[in-house]
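[step 3/7] inverse_fold.run input=structure_tokens len=174
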């Protein structure tokens, strides 16, 4: 289990894209990493766009990037809510400063935009936020997977297999 001893945060809020949260979470867990779901309220159960629940084990306020090896930001409509909280933006900025893996898929790019970490970074996302990504200074590509250093991005659920592998590889330092 090449990711034994690694710890990852997965951000949650209502209307996350179910597959874009759970597929990477299980992918990382199957390689041995510990994943903690984090939301605005510890203990609250958030519901995905298609009805799959996710209970926050921690609140964003109680987490520090220094205690973790990577962070996963799912898509759906949740990123538009998540990006409004300074605790989340600080977490993402701290992961970026430490060059630890940041996984973002679909609309999750909104969180990275609000954290102001995309200037000059090559990424992908759902085409619906391409303009937002480019206006934030990102170089946008319409590809299933784009990795620029520690930032791993994908467009949508069909891209989950290469995205999950790339995130695990980054956590493993490969």
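[step 3/7] decode complete -> sequence:
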């Amino acid at each position: 289990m090449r990711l034994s001893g690694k710890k990852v945060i997965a951000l949650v809020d209502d209307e996350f894209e179910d597959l874009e949260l759970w597929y990477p979470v299980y992918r990382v867990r199957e390689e041995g990493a510990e994943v903690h779901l984090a939301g605005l309220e510890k203990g609250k159960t958030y519901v995905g766009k298609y009805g799959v629940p996710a209970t926050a084990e921690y609140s964003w306020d109680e987490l520090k990037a220094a205690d973790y090896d990577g962070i996963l930001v799912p898509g759906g409509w949740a990123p538009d809510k998540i990006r409004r909280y300074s605790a989340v933006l600080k977490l993402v900025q701290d992961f970026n400063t430490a060059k630890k893996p940041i996984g973002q898929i679909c609309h999750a790019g909104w969180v990275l935009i609000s954290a102001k970490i995309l200037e000059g970074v090559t990424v992908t996302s759902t085409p619906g936020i391409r303009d937002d990504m480019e206006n934030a200074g990102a170089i946008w590509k319409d590809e299933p997977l784009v990795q620029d250093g520690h930032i791993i991005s994908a467009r949508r659920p069909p891209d989950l297999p290469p995205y999950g592998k790339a995130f695990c590889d980054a956590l493993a330092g490969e």
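[step 4/7] annotate
The CA atoms of residues 46 and 142 lie 30 Å apart.
The first helix runs from residue 18 to 30.
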